[in-house]
Specification:
The structure holds two protein chains of two kinds.
Chain A (H helix, E strand, L loop, with lengths): L5 H5 L2 H7 L1 H29 L1 H7 L2 H4 L3 E2 L4 E2 L2 H32 L2 H15 L3 H28 L14 H25 L3 H9 L4 H12 L1 H17 L2 H6 L17 H8 L6 H40 L1
Antiparallel strand pairs in A: 1-2
Chain B lengths: L1 H20 L1 E7 L4 H14 L3 E6 L3 H10 L4 E4 L5 H11 L3 E16 L8 E2 L1 H9 L8 H4 L13 E5 L4 H13 L1 H6 L12 E3 L1 H11 L3 E6 H6 L6 E3 L5 E2 L3 H12 L22 E9 L5 H15 L16 H10 L5
Parallel strand pairs in B: 1-2, 1-3, 5-9, 6-7, 6-8
Antiparallel strand pairs in B: 3-11, 4-8, 4-11, 9-10
Classes of the chains: A mainly alpha, B alpha/beta.
Chain lengths: 321, 341
């Protein structure tokens, strides 16, 4: 501002106000600041409302497997485990499917089909999660018991993750339902990103003699890499925090089992289930501390995601140099 | 334009005055008696136009918490407040809180066994064994012994319990504590406990959905929920040794058996009640009313409602599948209303 010379410097604050620049600046700044304020208020509230539980359990809270409301023993490990495993399973399924579909829609499908399908995908993204939970209970759970479980348990039953009986509900079921929920996010965002890749990138690749698929896979997709990763992290965020659909199909058992068929529990699900009926002060505060843990988990994973994007972008630009 | 605005203001002010004249009494708590409470409050409001009750079914735990904090005028719970909670209330308000039983409910064992159509009999030992994870097969002698002539499968029992904290769980675990020392020492009773085995379903509907979906499963739901949704449920052997199916009569019977030695504060568990035809997994549900209410109008309104609830109000219970209070309990409660001051 100051370097802009005597003319702008001589403008009084009032005249700037009249022209609207300062007002717009102030208002939008306030709006932007609320985001930070809300985040800070959230952490502050979670931190102060869980003081009893934090003092009683300390760091032990993170490694303890106990969850006994009668004895007032609480530990977060089974819930952290359940949250991470279901989210990981959902991403393992959703990433290849979602990115594959978005490549088809953006690069290969005729625009008419692409737009029609996009409409349905946006619709899917807007479906309330409790509906996905119902879909889970009535379709995925029986399918799990009758089709997926025998198909995985017979040939791969020697692996710990596919061992043991299946009740239909469990961590794998929750992961599958979550995958169905987050795929629309990945497709929708990735498609937009792929479509916004400049034309000359494609044309340059084709001019160099590459096939359509080569130009897509080797030029367009790497170009859009950052945006695609963004879509995956959006999906991860939703998977971590999903409550209703997960609690309906995960089995709600706070135990750590190696098998994906075993029932488990997630942080969001246990808070939704139990919080209102918590009887003691310590129990209530333990749920609030679980909320803090979930916040922390999201924070760490988001941070890692940022680092991953920075690292891969640098590597990418080195290659292109 | 101006006149419309003035008129509108006048209407709003008048409306506000009318609203202010009416008395609003807020309550919060148990979800299980919500249907009958909302019926009562609605009927009572029609009889006493200026009086309005607002009840939020947020759960027993939340009900206790809110009435202790003083954010509502009365609370409601499926499990009585424990001594610690009573003390917390006393410390905060300098006066006691009173329990008033309103109606009765029961919890029933339910299952999904293909090929078994009739209702199964369960002994207390079988129920405790299954929930402790000691009885794992349906054809275990502990179950089969009480069901002669029924061909039970050899499959594993899939136990289903509530995942959310609930008065239903309190009643169920309270019963298991009474019939099994091992359960009492290992798990004990609460609105949510550390389950030794099993899957969790959210709400009665979640448990029911899981049981319907899972072959060879076994769980527990509220009697009213089971009755309204035509869910098959088993009989349970009571303290007198007879297998009793839960219904309004056998649940009332359990309360009558316990009414004789009802303590002054009404905090009594009637699980495993004596009486030949008493259903053993029954329970009262309570209103929590402060013994000191500063506001005259509110105090009289609440006392008036309690009196009406114990008389005319009881007749609404059965059409909504709740069992009525036994006469002896009603008489005792009528005397207790005087304690509200």
């Amino acid at each position: 501002m100051q370097s802009a010379g005597p003319i702008s410097g001589s403008r009084s604050f009032l005249s700037k106000l009249r022209e609207g620049d300062e007002i717009a600046r102030l208002i939008t700044f306030i709006f932007a600041a609320t985001v930070v304020l809300i985040t800070v208020a959230l952490v502050y509230e979670l931190w102060t409302s869980s003081v009893l539980a934090r003092h009683k359990f300390g760091l032990h809270f993170f490694v303890s497997e106990a969850w006994d409301p009668v004895l007032d023993e609480f530990g977060a490990l089974p819930f952290i485990y359940g949250t991470l495993v279901t989210s990981a399973v959902s991403l393992l399924i959703a990433i290849p499917l979602g990115i594959g579909a978005s490549i088809f829609l953006a690069e290969l499908a005729p625009p008419r089909i692409s737009d029609t399908l996009q409409f349905f995908i946006d619709l899917l993204a807007a479906v309330p999660s409790v509906i996905y939970g119902l879909l889970g209970i009535f379709i995925v759970v029986p399918m799990m018991r009758n089709v997926i479980y025998p198909a995985l348990n017979k040939p791969f039953g020697f692996l710990p993750i596919f061992k043991g009986p299946s009740y239909g509900v469990g961590m794998l079921t929750a992961g599958i339902v979550l995958a169905i929920m987050v795929i629309p996010y990945i497709i929708s965002v990735s498609r937009e990103v792929l479509l916004s890749v400049p034309r000359d990138q494609r044309e340059a690749a084709l001019a160099l003699g590459s096939t359509r698929w080569e130009s897509t896979w080797k030029v367009v997709v790497p170009f859009a890499r950052t945006g695609i990763m963004g879509s995956v992290f959006l999906a991860l965020a939703r998977a971590l925090g999903e409550t209703m659909a997960v609690t309906m199909v995960i089995g709600n058992t706070p135990k750590i089992a190696a098998s994906l068929f075993a029932p488990g529990y997630s942080i969001a699900a246990v808070i939704a289930n139990d919080f209102t009926e918590a009887t003691g002060e310590l129990q209530t505060q333990s749920y609030i501390e679980l909320g803090l843990v979930l916040f922390l988990l999201t924070f760490i994973l988001n941070g890692l995601a940022r680092i991953l994007i920075i690292v891969t972008t640098q590597k990418g630009s080195k290659v292109s140099n | 334009m101006k006149r419309t605005a003035v008129l509108l203001m006048a209407v709003l002010v008048a409306g506000g005055l009318v609203w202010a004249q009416g008395l609003l009494i807020n309550g919060a708590g148990a979800t299980f008696p919500y249907p009958i409470y909302s019926k009562w409050f609605d009927v009572y409001h029609q009889k006493n136009g200026s009086l309005q009750f607002n009840y939020q079914s947020v759960g027993s735990g939340a009900g206790i918490k809110q009435v202790t904090e003083g954010t509502v005028d009365f609370g409601a719970t499926d499990g009585p407040m424990n001594d610690e909670q009573l003390k917390a209330y006393q410390d905060k308000h300098g006066s006691a809180i009173l329990h008033f039983p309103t109606v009765l409910g029961a919890v029933v064992p339910t299952y999904n066994l293909s090929g078994v159509s009739g209702s199964l009999n369960f002994t207390p030992e079988a129920l405790a064994g299954i929930f402790l994870g000691k009885i794992t097969k349906w054809n275990d002698p502990a179950i089969a012994g009480a069901n002669k002539g029924v061909s039970l499968p050899a499959g594993d029992i899939v136990v289903v319990h509530r995942s959310d904290g609930s008065g239903t769980t309190y009643v169920w675990t309270d019963y298991l504590c009474k019939i099994s020392d091992e359960w009492k020492s290992k798990v004990n009773k609460s609105t949510s406990v550390n389950w030794p085995v099993g899957l969790g379903g959210k709400g009665n509907e979640g448990v029911t959905a899981l049981i319907k979906q899972t072959p060879n499963s076994f769980g527990y739901v509220e009697l009213i929920y089971a009755a309204q949704n035509n869910i098959p449920y088993g009989t349970v052997r009571n303290a007198a040794g007879t297998f009793v199916k839960a219904d309004l009569k056998s649940v009332s019977e359990a309360a009558a058996g316990a009414a004789k030695d009802m303590p002054e504060d009404f905090r009594v568990s009637i699980t495993n009640a004596p009486g030949k035809t008493a259903y053993p997994i029954s329970s009262f549900t309570w209103l929590l009313v402060p013994s000191k209410i500063q506001d005259n109008a509110k105090r009289e309104a609440i006392k008036g409602f309690l009196t009406w609830m114990l008389a005319d109000g009881q007749s609404y219970a059965e059409q909504l599948s709740y069992a009525q209070l036994p006469k002896a309990v009603i008489e005792k409660e009528k005397k207790a209303i005087a304690k509200v001051q």
